[in-house]
Amino acid sequence: MTYDVLTMGRISVDIYPNDIGVGLADVTSFGKYLGGSPSNVAVAAARHGRATAVVTRTGDDPFGEYLHRELAKFGVDDRFVTPVAGLQTPATFCAIMPATHDFPLYFYGRFPTAPDLQIRADELDLDAIRDARIFWSTVTGLCQEPSRSAHIAAHEARPRAGLAEATGTAGQFTVLDLDYRPMFWTGEEAAREQVAKVLPHVTVAIGNEEECAVAVGHGTPDEQADRLLAAGVEIAVVKLGPEGVMAKTRTERVVSAPVPVETLNGLGAGDSFGGAFCHGLLAGWPLAQVLDYANASGAIVASRLACSDAMPTPEEVTSLLAERGRLVPEAVAQ
Questions:
Q1: 194, 137 in Cβ contact below 8 A?
Q2: What is the mean pLDDT of the chain?
Q3: Per the confidence metrics, is the pTM higher than 0.70?
Q4: What is the dihedral of CA 297, 303, 306, 308, to 10 degrees?
Q5: What's the CA gap between 81 and 72, in Å, rounded?
Q6: Domains assigned to the chain
Q7: What is the mean pLDDT of residues 173-186?
C-alpha cells in the first residue's frame, strides 16, 4: 500500500484535565486521548481524507492496546505500531490555563527511554517509507538510539526530488518537524548536530523561531528560512506566533495571518496545522492557500480541549475560512 502520509516517532496517552483553569494539584478528574505529535499529524491528515499510517512503538500494556484502538478509530493504519517488552506506554499530563495561555506538559514513562525511542532500523518497512507521498518525522526522534539510527535510515531511503518534481501529481515530500524539546536533549548543540545529518534529505522543514534557531541558528525568520533553504530544504515554514506563519521557497515568500479564535488549549494546534499542510501539499494548491488552510485547521484545535479527538474535517476548516473572509481552496470548495 502506498500511503499519502506516513509519520514516524512519538506516541503516548494524553491525560487532560476536565477542570479547566486550575493547576494539576487541584484537578479532580481527567480524560485520556491519543497523543504524540507524529501520531496526531497522522490523525489530522486522515481527517482530511488522506491514507495515513504511523511508525512507532508502545508498551505491551493496556494503554498500548488503547492507542491501537484509537488509531483504528481515526482511520490510521497501525500495522507499524509494535510493543516493547518491559517498557510502559508513556503518559503526558497537561494543565490547561487558557486565561494565561499556559499549557505546561509533564511527561511520564519517557525517562530514561520510551517505547517509541526503541524503533530499530532493521524493523523498518523501507519500501513503505520510500513510497509514501509524504514522510513526516520530528527532531525528537533523533534524541537517542536506536531511534536516531532508525530515523536516519528512513530519511536515507527517501527519494530526493526538487520542488518542481515534488509538486507534480506523483510528487513526494519529506517533512521534518523541528519540534525541539529540551528535556530530551543534553543541549541545543547536540540537537543541531543531529538535525544537520537529516536536513539534506528533507524537502520541507517546519518550526517556530526558537525551533529554527536550534536547527540553523538565531536570526530573523527570513534569515532562518534562508539557512534552511541553503541546507537543501525546498520549503521552509517558520511559525511567527501572533504574526501568523511564513513559508519560503527559492522563488516565493508568503505569509498567512493568524486566524483569530478563543484559545482553550494551545496544544495540538501545530499537529492539526501539520496534517492540513500535508493535505494541501498533496492537493497541489498554491502555497498561500496551503498556509491559510493549515492555519485555520490549527486554530480550530486551539479552540478545543483535546488534540487527536479535536482534529477538524475539511468542511469545518473551509467554513472557518469563509467566516474570516479567507480564500477557500477551489478543490475543497467543490
A1: no
A2: 94
A3: yes
A4: -10
A5: 11
A6: 5-11+37-90+115-322 (3.40.1190.20)
A7: 97
